[in-house]
Amino acid sequence: MARFKKIFDIKAIFALLFILTASMGIAREYVIYSIMQDIPMGEPREVVKKNFYMNIGKRQGVKEGTELDVFRNISILDPYNNKQRYNYKVRIGLLEVIHSEDEASIGMLKELYKDTKTPFFELEGIMIGDKVDVSVRRD
């Protein structure tokens, strides 16, 4: 009986370790969860500053000066092909981190992609819920 209990305990420990290590391999999505901005005063050529708050930080390798790509997920239903849904992950801009904590950071807009090669969006600009990822540039 004692041997059975010992074997059961070992199996339970291995199962728990497997579950914990498997969950570490699941990719986490990093998003913009809040935006704060200056109040526009209507001045000519006024630049309204915005801060973008994200759930990615030092533990993910993000520090001051890190560039983050911003993506928007677009889901479109094709009514002609068995109502199949297509999901697109489109890069819409670039943020630069100005402050970083362990699990969160604050960024400012560095570039917003809106040229002829960028898809049209219903809402222009970066918004809450857009995804972020560390920008890797290959020259």
3D architecture notes:
With 139 residues, the protein is of the alpha+beta class. The chain has one domain (29-134): Beta Barrel (Thrombin, subunit H), CATH 2.40.10. Helix content is 17%, strand content 39%. It has one helix spanning 2-24; strands at 30-37, 50-54, 67-78, 84-100, 105-112, 131-134. The chain has a six-stranded antiparallel β-barrel. It starts with a helix and ends in a 5-residue tail after the last strand. The relative contact order is 0.21.
Order of helices and strands: HEEEEEE
Q: Can you give the helix content as a percent range?
A: 10-25%
CATH A-level architecture: Beta Barrel
Strand order of the largest sheet: 1-2-5-4-3-6
Low-confidence region ranges: none
Q: Enumerate how many helices there are, as a single number.
A: 1
Kindly give the count of domains.
1
- How much is the average pLDDT? 83
Examine the coordinates and then state which fold CATH places here, giving the name of the CATH topology. Answer: Thrombin, subunit H
Sheet/helix structural class: alpha+beta
How would you briefly describe this protein structure?
This protein is of the alpha+beta class. It is built from one helix and six strands; from the N terminus they run αββββββ.
Overview features:
139 residues; Thrombin, subunit H; six-stranded antiparallel β-barrel; 1 helix; 6 strands
